[in-house]
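A sample copied in:

***
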Amino acid sequence: MLKEPEQLAMLHHRFCRTLEIEVAYHSFLEQEVMVGEDYYCLHEPLRQQVTHTLLITFYSYIYSLFDPRGVNVGKVPSEVIENLSEQGKEALNIANEAWAEIKTPISKIRSNIGFHHSSKKSGAIHGYDSYKEIHPLSTLLIVKALRLFFRNVYQVFEPEAPRSPAPTADENEHLLKELYKLKKCIEDNSLEDILKLMQKVN
């Protein structure tokens, strides 16, 4: 196997932190945390607010995966691309395409209410309004695509840090099919359609 490039190692490290934030967000969202006077999360309104803060953090971490000033999925080293399988290249393309669709609103959230915060109320409002520009399945698509990308990467490159047992080819193929289904779901259910549906429900 080939030696893992430093840039790749740092990108994978950041991706793992992003997965952990995603787990924390969904744990609060699905009410998998203890709530009450005997716990740190004292009451239901606090759980809801923490859930929202974790979503902001998750979006900020998604941004950081594509940050041109840091680790950047869009600039994976050429030596990695050249040695990657077609499946891995396809997964990387899906992640980059999905990012291109939500780059602007995610950047507004990150810069106004995420890792940075606007000094003006109008800026914060601008950040919160940007949620309306993000398809709710887009970040899920990015995470799944990058998961498949790294699975393929570490079939070729030897990671410095210990990793769990490698997935099988069948497991990777199943994940690729999931990606295509999710991508089609986003294409068939536009953000405009979802917003209209939410307005009817509310």
Residues 45 and 176 are 38 Å apart (CA to CA). The chain has a mean pLDDT of 93. The radius of gyration is 18 Å. The chain is about 65% helix and 0% strand.
